[in-house]
Amino acid sequence: MSIVVVGSVAFDSLKTPYGVRERVLGGAATYFSLSASYFTEVRVVGVVGDDFTPEHEAVMKKRGVDTRGIQHADGKTFFWKGEYGENVNEAKTLQTDLNVFGSFQPQLPAEYLNSDFLFLANIDPVLQTQVRDSMPDVKLVGGDTMNYWIKDHRANLGDMLKRVDVLLINDTEAKMLADDNSLPRAARKVLERGPKALVIKHGEYGATIFFRDGQFAGGHHPFRAPALPLEEVRDPTGAGDSFAGGFMGYIASQGEVTRNVLKHAMFYGSVMGSFSVERFGTERLQSLSREEIDERFGMFRELTHLD
Amino acid sequence: MSIVVVGSVAFDSLKTPYGVRERVLGGAATYFSLSASYFTEVRVVGVVGDDFTPEHEAVMKKRGVDTRGIQHADGKTFFWKGEYGENVNEAKTLQTDLNVFGSFQPQLPAEYLNSDFLFLANIDPVLQTQVRDSMPDVKLVGGDTMNYWIKDHRANLGDMLKRVDVLLINDTEAKMLADDNSLPRAARKVLERGPKALVIKHGEYGATIFFRDGQFAGGHHPFRAPALPLEEVRDPTGAGDSFAGGFMGYIASQGEVTRNVLKHAMFYGSVMGSFSVERFGTERLQSLSREEIDERFGMFRELTHLD
Question: What pLDDT is attached to residue B90?
Fold first, then answer.
C-alpha cells in the first residue's frame, strides 16, 4: 500500500569529522521517501525553488517515488548548513535559509488521496493538521515535530497530536513536550494527548515504542529496538527521517497494523537509520538493495536476541 | 560455583526526588554480593569500622553470603553522602569519608581460595592486581573501575586491565579510558589493552557487551541488553554494582563461559539493576525471590524480542 509524506526538500551543506559536502540533496521528506521506497510506494509532497533541477528530482524518481506533489516555486530551495563535532549526536546549525519553504502550502495531487498511510514530517503543526484532515480515511498517520514547535506553538501542536496515530520524536523532544525528565513518564503524558503509540529515538542507543493501553492487538508493554554500534558515523544528518521512512514504509507494506508489525517496523527503522549515517547525505539510501536491508535486519536481531 | 568479590562496604546518606535516607548499608561489594547471591555462592572481602554492627553483617548473611573476608578495623566505615536531582543518571557527591577504607589491604581467607570466579569492584587498581594474582587459577575475572583511577593512575590501571577477563564500566568511563568519543571505537581500544570482553553500561538505555575476536565460542559481534523503562527510579545508587552482581552471579552459576552464557548474563545484570533502583539502598535486593527475578527476565525478553 502507498504512503504520502509531506515535508521539507532541501539542500544541505555538511561538515563532519569525515569531510565536507556542499549543497547536497537533503530534507526530511527526501530522506523519508528514499528510505521508505525500499518497502512500499511513496508519494512525496514538498516545495522546491528554481535551483532544484531534474537531476535532483531523478534521485527520487529512480527509487520509484512519485514526485508529482513537489511544487516548484519562484526562489531558492530550503538551505541548511550544519556541522558535527566529536559528538555526532549534536548538530551545530550554521545557517538556515527557509527560502520557498517559508511559505509552503502543501497541495496534495488528486492521485495521492487514495493512499492508506500518511507521514507528516517536521513542518508547522498547522499545516500538518490541514494535510491530515484532507485525508480522513487513512489507516495510520505518523508524525514528527521539533523543539521550535514544542516551545512556541503548543496549542497548534496539541491539535496535531490529536490527529496522529504514531508520533516519532527524540529523547529531548519527548522530555520537553511532556515537561518531564523521566522518559517513561514523559511517554505516558504524550500518549495522553492523542497518539496511540509514541516512538522515542535515542540516537546511538536505539529507540523505544510506547503504546497507549488497548490500542494495538498484542499487549501494551513498550518495545525497544537497538541501534548498530558503528565505529564510523560519517554523517548523522537525516538519520531520524531515515528511521521514520523504514518504520512507516514497513508498516505500509503490511496488511494490518498490529503490535507485532510495529515491533518489526522498529527494527526496520533502526536498520535504515544505520545505513543512512554510513555515507554523506542520501548517498547510501540511493543505492541499497532489499537483500542488504534484510541482511542487516538479521544483524540487528542477533544484536539483542537470546537463543 | 562460588565467586569472590573484593570492594567497598559503606554507609550511604542518600537524597533523591523520592526521599531521604541516612546512613543506610551500601558499598559496591554489598550491592554486588546481595545481587549475586540469588544465583551463586558469594564470598565477600572488604573492611568495616566499629560502627558496623552484627545487624549490618546479618543483611549479607541472611542471603547466604560468606562474610569471613570482612575485616574489622579501628575507626569508622567508609561513608558516602550523595544527592540525585531530576536527572537520576548523575549523582552529586556531597561528602566522602574514606575512613578505614582508605588503608584497605584485602586479605583473602584461605577458605576463599578455591573459588572459580572473582569480581574486583572499584578499588585501587594496585590492590585489584594483587588480589587477582593471589587467585591465579580462577575461570573468569570481572572488574570495575572509575574516573579517578582512569585519570591519575593510568599505569596501574593498565596492569589491572591485563588481568581481567571482563571489564564492566559506563559510557563516560569507556570514552575516557580509550580517549575516544565513539563508543564502538572506544570498546575496541579497551579490548586491545587486555580484557576479552567489555561491558559498557548505558544507564536507562541498557548495556552492550563487546567481545575481543575469537575469545568466546559463538562469534564476536556485540550484544545489547535493554533496561526497563521505569517511571519511578527511587534511588539509582548501586545500580551498576547490582548489574555486575547479576551478570557475574549468573556466569558463576553456569558450567562454562560461552558467548551464549554471557548474553544471558547481560539480561540478568539488567534485571538486577532494575530491581535495585526501585527502592532506597539495598532494600529491594534483600527481599527478592528467584521467581520474581525470572518473571522480570521474561519482561526484558519481551521488551526486545521479535516473534
Answer: 79
- Cα distances (angstroms) measured from residue A18 to each of A169, B185, B188: 27, 15, 19
Take residue B55 and report the three cell numbers written for it.
Answer: 545487624
B interface mutation test: which of A191, A211, A224 has the most B CBs within 10 A?
A224
Using CA atoms, how far residue B266 sits from A190, A219, A227, B39, B301, in Å, is: 31, 25, 17, 14, 11
Angle at B144 between CA A232 and CA B107, to 5 degrees: 160
Closest partner residue to A87 among B181, B185, B202, by Cβ? B181
Q: How far apart are CA B52 and CA A132, in angstroms?
A: 65
List, in sequence order, every residue forming a beta bridge with A11; answer none if it has no partner.
Answer: A25, A79
Query: Is B260 at the interface with chain A, CB within 8 A?
Result: yes
The partner residues of B96 in beta bridges, in order of sequence, read B80
C-alpha cell at A47: 516545495
What are the DSSP E strand ranges found in chain A?
A: 3-6, 10-16, 19-26, 42-48, 66-72, 78-84, 91-97, 117-120, 140-143, 166-170, 197-201, 207-211, 223-225
Report the number of secondary-structure helices (H) and strands (E) in chain B.
11, 13
Chain B residue with CA closest to A203: the answer is B205
Q: Do B210 and A223 touch (CB under 8 A)?
A: no
Could you give the strand order of the β-sheet that contains A19-26, starting from the edge strand earlier in sequence?
A19-26, A10-16, A78-84, A91-97
If we measure between CA atoms, which residue out of B15, B224, B23 comes closest to residue A306?
Answer: B224
pLDDT of residue B154: 94
Rounded CA-CA distance B126/B29 in Å is 17
Q: In what order do the strands lie in the sheet with B207-211?
A: B66-72, B42-48, B3-6, B117-120, B140-143, B166-170, B197-201, B207-211, B223-225
Distance CA A289, CA A48 (A): 28
What 3-state class would DSSP assign to B135?
Answer: coil
Among A185, A226, A260, select the one facing B231 at the smallest CB separation.
A185
Q: Report the residue count for chain B.
A: 307
Q: What is the mean pLDDT of each run of 10 residues along chain B (307 residues)?
A: 97 96 98 98 98 98 98 98 84 95 97 97 98 96 96 96 98 96 95 97 96 82 94 94 98 94 97 97 97 96 92
Using alpha carbons, select from A279, A278, A288, A280 the residue that is nearest to residue A246: A288
Mean pLDDT of A244-253: 98
Q: Is the pTM of this model over 0.90?
A: yes
Whether the CB of A226 is below 8 Å from some CB of chain B: the reply is yes
**Minimum mean pLDDT range among A88-92, A123-127, B246-250:** A88-92
Average pLDDT value for residue range A78-97: 90
* Residue A287 cell numbers, joined: 543505492
Burial class (CB in 10 A: 0-12, 13-18, 19+), B18: middle
Q: Are strands B19-26 and B10-16 parallel, antiparallel or unpaired?
A: antiparallel
- Residues B303 and A221 sit within 8 Å (Cβ to Cβ): yes
